[in-house]
Structure formats: structure tokens, C-alpha cells
Prior knowledge:
CATH class of the largest domain: Alpha Beta
Helix content: 25-40%
CATH topology of the largest domain: TIM Barrel
Low-confidence stretches: 1-7, 11-17, 483-487
Number of helices: 17
Largest sheet: 7 strands, mixed
Strand content: 15-25%
Radius of gyration: 23 Å
Structural class: alpha/beta
Shape: globular
CATH architecture of the largest domain: Alpha-Beta Barrel
Mean pLDDT: 93
Number of strands: 19
Amino acid sequence: xxxxxxxxxxxxxxxxxNLSAQAVVPDLIITNGRIVDGTGNSWFKADLAIKGDxxxxxxxxxxxxxxxVKVIDAANKIVAxxxxxxxxxxxxxxxxxxxxxxxxxxxxxxxVTGNCGSGADDIGIFLKGVDSIxxxxxxxSLAGHNTIRRLGMGLENRKATAEEMKKMEEITLKxxxxxxxxxxxxxxxxxGMYAPTEEIxxxxxVASTHGGxxxxxxxxxxxKVNEAIDEALTIGREANIPVQISHFKVTGKNNWGRSxxxxxxxxxxxxxxxxxxxxxxxxxASSTNLAVRLPDWALEGGLDSLRVKMKNPExxxxxxxxxxxxxxxxxxxxxxxxxxxxxxxxxxxNGKSISEINLMLGRKKNVTNEANLIxxxxxxxxxxxxxxxxxxxxxxxxMKYPFNMPAADAGISNGSGMPHPRGYGTNARxxxxxxxxxxxxxxxxxxxxxxSLPATKFNLRDRGMLMPGKFADIVIFDENVSAAFIF
Length: 487
């Protein structure tokens, strides 16, 4: 499919500077650009002076004031704050590729990682490691509930004991003290799927006392999405913590058109004074692993335990029955919507749907054979998948919402497999398709959602706006230039 890119230049400043110094002369001036400062206000013409890693001045005439300073001619391009992506998964990949090329090329200068309940085991060690590799992007991290639960009580499907609950609270407290910006949950993943709401409230209270945010991949995004939104809001209210609902969507054909209903719940909460915001990737396909196609109970104990279960014919049939019931509920006749992004044991599967692979293997086309294929694959390895389950009309409805932030839900790419394009072009697609081509939102509003809105939500002080004293995380781009490319 054809996607869009915006031509982007990211300026990274590497030297510390004390703005209180006397007779300050900038190191660099950006001139002739149209400043979009991140507040949502209209662009204006001005020069922007930088000293070290900070913005020194934003006003006209700076090139005349400092005639000997190095100049970048922005040539009527947009000069904006570096984009902040609030939904990343870069715990391992940042150390493999610290240049974070796919983020930089999309204009992103700051990533919040640790989402969907999956954070580093030790936030302090992780952040020190990031500092040591001199990465191209700024990194903040959430404390992941799945990680905390695994460390506190393993992968079991049960309620935590009082002792285990205390241990999880202690792990959460240490993470917040070590610099986490909040708590995340991934309630369709192990072992968070087994956690009662009360457990999450207790941990969110710990994060709240340290100024954190509660970011959630909700328990349901399909038929029972209303229940999941209500749970997220309940956790926020009871823990007195701001809520960020991750990759906001409604999935499954039977749920298409419910965006007014689900977004209405968020709007109503905000009208009542509750701090809840959302993020979204601008694609109608999601991406996660293959195992999420199975019933929750089948995943207790992890993939090794699942493989033991599948050797029992009665248990395998029970799993298959659960998978087919889910397909029927979602009005999916087959698994043609499920496309393999990366499957380690056999790269010929990459880029093909489960339905296509089933036929490639010489099997008859029916949902039972395709469900069996999924189990056969999981016996060897989990797979990264792309799921085409959303409606463009719902996507656009969410896109119009002013408290919605673009977010890639991606890691740092190494180019393997056939990954979701959101990891490369989330912000560029918003700017090209939904701002320039379809005029769903105006440029300054889109940039506010990419900059000052996420900075404010996640307490990223001194970022997200082009103002004196702020960090010089800056993106320069021509909003009229695009290039088509194929995935």
C-alpha cells in the first residue's frame, strides 16, 4: 500500500549550557523559517538562536544581532519542536541501534518506553544504560505492570497474596524513585491479563504519589471495549492518577462505527474534570504477537506451558473451540486479516496471512485448519503479527479529537521481517495524509499533539515548545514535499 513521507531534518544539540551566563553568544541560528512553537498557535516568522542544548532566543533580527554565528537557512520551511512519541517499546533495541534511525527520520526526538505493561526489570539500571550509549533520542520510561507482576509472583492465573502485593508495591516504588514517569499495563498479555482491577489500583496509587501517569493497553479493544474504558477510568479515579489510554481503537468488524460511543466516554470523563487522554497510530492495522489469538486461560504459565497443553488432544480441542468462538464473535470467517510480520523459524511466512500460509502448505481452506496452523506455529515460536481489524471512519473520528497524540507503538527497527509501517512513518503520515491531503486537522494542531501535549501529560519539563530556556530538540521540514513508498 502507498504511504507518505515528509522531508524532515532533526537538529540535535550535544553541549550543556547555563543560560544565566553573562554576554551569551549563540552557537547557531536558524533563520528564514516559519516557527510553529508547539502551543497550537499559528506559525510566525522569526529567527531561533541556540546555545549548547538550549534555546536562547526566538525573535526577528538575530542574524543581524550576531553576524558571525553559524546559520542554518530554513528557507520558509516549518521549524517545530522535536516530536515526542509516548508509546514506544525500545528496551532492548535502543542498545542494539542507539542511533534510533527510524524515529529520527520520523522527526521524533523523545520516546516514552515501557508501555503495554512491559518495562525494564530495573528502571534505574536501564536509564543509566541509555545514558552510557549516547543515544540520538531522549528516553523516558514507564514501569511495566506485567514486569512487576512477573517479578512479584510469576505467571500464575490467580490473585496476589498480601505478601506478593507488598513486593509488587515495593518494586513499583523503586521504579518511580529511579525515574519512571508512571505505570503501564498490558491487560491482554501475560501475566497482567490475570490481574484484578484492585491490584492495578494499588500499584497506580504508588505511581500517583510520585507524580506518575497511568498508561494502559486496555483489557479489551473489541466487543467489550466499553468495559475496558470504564476499568481504566475507575483505576484513574481510585488511584487519583492521570490516565493515558494507549493506541485507542475499536477492533473487529462487529464493532466498526462505535468510535462515537467509546470516545464519548473519554469526553464525558474530561467534562467531569478527570485527566484522561489518548494516543493513536494512523493506520487501520494493529501489530502484536500471534499468541493473543488464543484464550487467556490457555496462556497461563507462558508458551512452554501452552506447548504441554497442546499435546493433550482434549486440551488442544478446547483451545481451538475457544479460538473459533472468538472468530465468530468478531464476525471473522477466517484469519485473512492476520498477517505475519516476522516468524523466526520460517521467513517464507513473512508478509503472508494465516489464510495464505494455510493454502501454501496444501491444507483445505477453513477456520479449523487455520486455527490449527496458529497452534503449529506457536509450538515452534511466537510470531510478530499485523492485524487488519479497524475501520478508517473510526480512525478519522479519533484523529479529530484534540486530546489525542500520535504514537507509533514501535521499537527501533533493524530492518528484519516485514514490520508495521507505523515504526517508520507515524508522524509523517499524520502530517501528509490527514493534515495536508485530507485536511482533517490543521498543521499547528497536529504539531501541538506531537509536542506540547505529550510533554505536559508525561511531565517532560523543558520540552515540547520552542521558547527561550527550553531544550533545543528541533525538527525542520517542508510540509509540501512528500515521497510515496511501498510496504
